[in-house]
Each structure stands twice: as C-alpha cells, then as structure tokens.
Amino acid sequence: MTDGVLLEKLRVTTLPSIVVLVEGRVVHFRKSFNGINAKSIRLFARDVIPTTFLHRITTHVMLRRFLDQWKTTNRISVLMLGTKEEPRLRYYLTAMKYSHFARFAYVFLGSHQEDIQSLKTALNIKCRDCENVIIFKEEPEKGEAARITVSTNQFSQDELQGVIEKNKFLQLPRLSSMQYFDELCPTSSRSLRHYCIILPVTDAESEEPFVSALYRFINAHPRSDKSRVKISYIFSNRQDFFLQHFSAPKISDDTKRKSILVLWRNEYVKAKYAWLEGIWNGDELEEYKTFDLLKEKLHLIERGNLRLEETAKIVNLLDEHIPSWFTRLSRRVIRMVETVWFYIAKEEALPVLSVIGSFFVIMLCGYILNAAFNPDKKQRVFEKQPSSSDWHPDDPRTPPTRNESMRSTASSRQTRILKEMEPMIHELRAETYFGLIRLLKPGCRSIIVLVDKESKEVLLHQFARHVYPLRNNKTFSFGYLMIDKNLAWFKTLLEQILPGEDGEGSL
C-alpha cells in the first residue's frame, strides 16, 4: 500500500495531522496545532478510546458483580485503583491490549462515598495516595490475588504489562477461543516440547465435579510458570468441530470417568496426541487415587516417556466470547454517535441543532394547520365505518348498504372468499348424506345452511364469509340444503325435534 492510498483511507487532507485508529474507526485531532503539548495529545487519545474496555466501579455491589463473572467469561479480573478521578491513559491502553484475556475495572480512591471507603477496607488498602492494581482469579473471595502498589511514582506501561503477563490466565483456564489455544498450546520443536493437557467436558451441571476436581488437583500440585505442561479443559458440546479431528478414545466416557487428551503442537495446523483413557474421576471419595494416577502420567509426559503416535489437524476453535448481533449493532451505533459528537465542536453543534429543531417545528406547525383547516378530510378519517351488524337480515336478499369507498374493496374480497370456499360447500342430498351426516367421525362436525331457490345466492355468499375462518380446520364440513327439493324430509325432521308430552324432543 502506497503512502497516498494510506492517506486516502485515513481521510487525511492536510499535513501535519494527528489521527487515532481504534476498532476500525479513524478519529482526527480537530483542535489547532498552535500551543499543542503532550497533555492535550494524551487527553485526545484517552477520549477516543471506548469506555467499555475499562468499567467504572463505585459501589460494593458493582465490585461483587464484576468479580463473580470469572467463570462465565473465562477471564481474570484486573482491578485498578487510582487517585485520579479519570483513569490514566496507560490503564486504557493496557485494558485494550489484554481485553481478550482479562476484564478491567477502575476505582477512584479519592471519592468520599461510604461505599468507596468500605471497598478500601475490604481490599486492605491503607495508603491514601497510592496507585494499586489487584488481579483476581478463581474464587476471588478466598483465592489468591496478585497485587502491585506504587506510592510515589506512577505505574509504567512495562510494569503493568509485566504483572498481567505473569497472571494472564486462570489457574484452570478453558479453551474458549483460538487466542487461548495459541497461548496455552503454542507450537514447539521436538527438542523443547510444550504439552497441553485437555479435559473434554460439557457445560452441563452434572459434569461440574470433573472440573472442580481438576482445579483442586492444580491447587494441590502447583506448577511453575516455566513448566512446559499446561492443564486446561474444553466444552466438547461447544467445540465439537475442533474435537472431531481427534479420534475418540477406545474407552468411552461415562458419568464417573473421563478421558484426558495429551497434545503436542508440532506445527501450527498439526498436532501429535494421545488419550489417557478413563483416567479422571470426579468422585471426591476416589480423589486421592485419581490425583496420584494423573501425577504419575504428568511425570511421564515431562520426561518424554509418553508416546504420542496419532496425528490430528488443528482447526480454529469457536470464539465463545463473541458478542451477539444485537450487542454488536448497539456498539456500532454508539461508536458512530460518539464519532460524530467528537468531530463536531460546541460552536459547530449549536447551529446544526438549531437548524434541525427549526425544521421539525415548521413541519409540526404545517401539520397542525393542515388538520385544522381541512374539515372534509377530518370527517372522512373519523367517519364510522358501516358493518354488517348495522342491519337486520329480515330479508336476506337485501344486501347491507355500503358507502362508495368500500364497495370495490368489499366486492373483491367477497369474490375471493366465495371462490376459495365454493369447492368446500357441498349440497346435502342422497349422494352426500352419508358423508356429511351419517358417517361423521368422532369429533367432526357438519355445518348445513338451509336455502331456497330465491335466497340461495345471497345466503351462500354470507355463509361462505362466516365460515371462512374455519376453512383450514379438518374437523369441519360445510354444506347447504335446498328446502324446495327436500320439503318432506325437512318436515319430518321438524316433527321429530318438537317437544313431546314430557317436554323433550323425540331425538
């Protein structure tokens, strides 16, 4: 890419120019270069960094919620406590760099709120003017925490990154993305092998004891930072595509025992592996035997006595931390608004807002005047729409009256309904009597309308409109009976349903 193309992509029109590129956005320094200094550049860079990388904590409840998310996020929790109300630029830069492996929060120690004072007491912070960084891992209420404190000078960028690099992962991390896999299972040579011990489990609560037992094993047998054996676990139901490239163990896993995968990544896209079949037990009663067996296997791995004979292809893991589409869309909209607001200074924003406000006021006034001085349109809008319930069908041959605006729409709709219902409405006669009445299955019903030669057309139109919502119900059948042709049968039916001496019909 040439310099001209790069300047065009960065939308640089004049030189000199200062730009910040963050999350795909290009933000230009809009102020005058006269009297520019290092402080103004730092403030400019700090203001364009999204605040989502560094949360602000002001209460004890917010701190508890922040620390308790270590299991779901699979990340360490980095708490920064400073004497400045606004976080320093190096805090933002560090949070951006390690955002995939850690969550960051900032506490202003100079606040006089009671919650801040209780936070200082809970975190055992006695120095009033000190800068503190505390890193929490699993079980923050009782687990170990890495702490770094500076009382006189500020933290340097190297000091912050150094302490985070030493405590970059949880004691038992989960392989939840390709970044985690590259860090925990790096490519290594044959002479200096790095082994990755992986426990495949699902995210169901029933398999939580296997992970808890492995965490207790790590605490009981801690390993140094320079160890070439890294222990982790993976959710097999989420990363099934990754695990498909490894042959299943010969001993299938059950509810009591799990197999452990030993992996050596000799190339970036290939790995040598072997299964420790049925070695891991989540039962606390057999914990001692399980720990000794795994410790013995790890000793063989470190000495190179465990043969890794099978080869598998390494594919990308699914990123379990990727936000949902709604979150990504919301963040994009917020970034766009922040960028526009950052570009527009106060002197430029007021005229633009004034023009937009004037435009909406003019449109509102025009709408009100149009509605006030156009009574015919208002009458048409609020005119009561006639319906079929406004007339009594004493004479079924008399159609309901409709205004001119509704006739065409109603006529086309009635034609469509009749055309669709016509094949479903059968005449009740000798050929269809058994199908419509005598041989009905349990739960099925037939709806019959009585018509004569004169009222047939009108009544069938109305009947089709009323039964149209039931057209897709397979338990309904529809028909009509011509009274002129079946007068004797209809007379007999009426005589049979007349009440007898006991007050009930004969049917």
Tell me what the structure shows.
This is Thioredoxin domain-containing protein. The chain crosses the membrane at residues 352-373. Keywords: Membrane, Transmembrane, Transmembrane helix. Residues 400-413 have a biased composition (Polar residues). Residues 383-413 are annotated as: Disordered. The chain is of the alpha/beta class. It has five domains: 3-34, no CATH class; 51-166, Glutaredoxin; 178-313, Glutaredoxin; 325-358, no CATH class; 416-497, no CATH class. 40% of the residues lie in helices and 18% in strands. It contains 18 helices and 15 strands. The chain has helices spanning 3-9, 38-48, 60-67, 70-73, 89-97, 114-122, 157-166, 178-184, 208-220, 240-243, 287-303, 325-343, 346-372, 375-382, 404-421, 430-438, 456-467, 487-497; strands at 19-22, 25-28, 54-56, 76-82, 102-108, 131-136, 145-150, 195-201, 229-235, 257-264, 270-281, 310-313, 425-427, 445-451, 476-482. The strands form four sheets. A five-stranded mixed β-sheet has the order 3-5-4-6-7. Strands 9-8-10-11-12 form a five-stranded mixed β-sheet. The protein has a three-stranded parallel β-sheet with strand order 13-15-14, sandwiched between helices. Strand 14 (445-451), helix 17 and strand 15 form a beta-alpha-beta unit. Helix 15 (404-421) packs across helix 17 (456-467). The longest helix has 27 residues, at 346-372. The chain is extended and about 105 Å long. The termini are far apart. Residues 391-395 have low confidence and may be disordered.
